[in-house]
Amino acid sequence: MVNLIEIILNGKSRMVPEGGSLQTLIDSLGFEPTALVVELNESVVDKDTLKAVELHAQDKVEILQFVGGG
Hints:
The protein is mostly beta strands and 70 residues long. It contains one helix and five strands, in the order ββαβββ. The radius of gyration is 12 Å and the shape is globular.
């Protein structure tokens, strides 16, 4: 059985597997990491460290996706 924790993702409560990383979260949402800015608890996270940053209960994650157009 997988233990779940609650995080706040873009202002809304979300349950995610305990021990998961920011990269795991981004992958599960189907985002392309190169077109994102990710904040964890109001600090911008470097894209090179997304796999190493583990999520904890009540973390506040903001994911901003860039969309091109013309």
